[in-house]
Amino acid sequence: MKQAITTVYKGFPDFHVTIEDIIAEGEKVWVRETETGTHRGEYQGIAPTGKKMTFTCVDTFKIVDGKIAEAWHVYDFLEFYRQLGVIDYKGFLEEDS
């Protein structure tokens, strides 16, 4: 986990997470968050673009005996790459011009 976080901060030195919602039921916890940052360092083999990214993701945790036993982090890579300018994607719901 430390390695993953270090990698993110190397690529996005101003990386920030804002927690929007937390829902807990039984042994599951869901966290909806907004992540922002400026691509100023290499990330996943992509040279710095200087572009800002903002997107929403959802984390799901399974808690057993007060500790995280399982975790899932789900976000839209397609939107992430679009914002960095790595791909040109208009979305499948947009009308063709």
Mean pLDDT: 91
Task: State the CATH class.
Answer: Alpha Beta
Q: State the total count of DSSP E strands.
A: 4
> What letter string, H or E per element, gives the SSE order?
HEEEEH
Which stretches are low in confidence, meaning pLDDT under 50 for 5 or more residues running? Answer: none
* CATH fold call: Nuclear Transport Factor 2, Chain: A
Largest sheet: 4 strands, antiparallel
- Number of structural domains: 1
- Helix count from the secondary structure assignment: 2
CA-atom Rg in angstroms? 16 Å
What share of the residues lie within helices? Answer: 10-25%
Strand content: 35-45%
| N-end to C-end Cα span | 44 Å
Based on Cα principal axes, name the global outline.
globular
CATH architecture: Roll
Structural class: alpha+beta
Care to describe what's here?
The chain has 97 residues and is an alpha+beta fold. A four-stranded antiparallel beta sheet has the order 1-2-3-4. A hairpin with a 2-residue loop joins strand 3 and strand 4. It is 19% helix and 44% strand. The chain has helices at residues 2-11, 77-84; strands at residues 16-25, 28-38, 52-64, 67-75. It is built from two helices and four strands. The relative contact order is 0.17. The protein has one domain (2-84): Nuclear Transport Factor 2, Chain: A, CATH 3.10.450.50.
